[in-house]
Amino acid sequence: MSAWPSVLLWVTLLAPLPLGLLALRHPPRQMRRVVPVGALLPLTTLLLLPGLGEEAQQGSLSLGGLALQWRLDPLAALLLLLTQLVLLASATYAVGHRRAALPGVDAHARFWPLLGGLAVALGLIWVAADLLLLYVGLELMGLTAVGMMLLPGKAEAIRAGLRYLLFALVGSLAWLLGVALLLGAWGTLALAELAAVAEPDAVTRIAMALLAAGLLLKAAIFPLHGWLAPVHASAWTPVSAVHGALVVKGSFFILILLWRLLLPEAVTAAWALGLLGAVAVLWGGLKAWRADTLKQVVAWSTVGQLGYLMLAFPLLAGVAASAAALAWQATWLQLAGHALAKAAMFMAAGNLMLSTGASRLEELAGTSRRLPLALMTFGVAAVTLMGLPPSAGFTAKWLLLQASLEAGQWLWAVVLVLGTLLTAAYVFRVLRCSFVEEAPRHEFQVLPRGTDLVPLLLALAAVGLGLVAQWPLALLREGGVP
User: Which residues contact 159 (CB under 8 A, 6 or more apart)?
Assistant: First the structure.
């Protein structure tokens, strides 16, 4: 890779941290000057995309005597672009959210450097090409996410945040044990070298089991999801948006990356992961349908929607190349659509709760008339989660359905149908409560300008991604299935 694209990549990866620190040192009214600068980062990523083809760009980052391997392929670039767009939207939304919900709260200033640290962590995960750099990104992501969860400072937020930290530390311990086994057995941490020398023996399988357990815990995959709903119940809305949209996806990305490198033909284990995903789709949907508060609905929805991603494992192991290619494209399109829609849904839910001062579903009565834009945003985001045309969710589920039928794995087609029905059930339950007119009058708080617009743009982007899905899918086809 020539010098200037490499420099441009690392500037793009590391720039969010100084931007976050700059926002910390300025009074709140100056934060709006930092956000437009952050808008340049997606543009720089777009400049890198045309230079990527079938051969990934790669290199090493030397830190003293330590060399960290990195690589940039179309998938990593698309995920980096998605991360920058969602975090930029969350940062923009946070400016207005602070004015309305947190006036005079000094702790909000610490949100900005933590958001910058999270952006750096996710960027490192997307481009890492060795286990050490993956570990650095994974731990930085976990620490910044925990820090943002603790920002409210209330007792319930501290309890939920510390519980999240405990789960994250257990996951990190399992990860380190797995890495130690791989290093001891094969003598390298570089992913390319591991793929070349590692054999699917007992040591590799045990190491992968430890790695998978730690990552499943961090990603809140059923049945290791117990920390997720309490964390979102007490978190600020911009924090919930970035966490539900991106943080849990980082661990999934690492899991499927390592699985494809080390145990690509472990069919039985892949089916076990697929069954966990199927149960997650159904359990998360049922819990969201029965939830009493709006944030619980959205949080449990995340558990269910993550289950769709787990269906990739059985559809990539031991199947025809054409079915695997469809599943590979569907997985990342589903991830992108869900990230955009889930961030929009959390923000829309936050706007509804902020304006009404209520969180329970029955207390949202009358919002269809008084808060039509926030409710419409919630509904547009739900279009992607339900998988209705022409959204990215529809295209992704259609590709998953094709892959399932081509691979002869009919079970996943049934899961897709049932999951869609459950998603519709909890979405329409929220809408039904909002359209009740004979409810007590609320004193609705006026929302700051822009807090309705940002989530609406994200929701529309999730729908629009389905219309232009050929562009990212073509890039994924160029990169191929690893």
Answer: 230
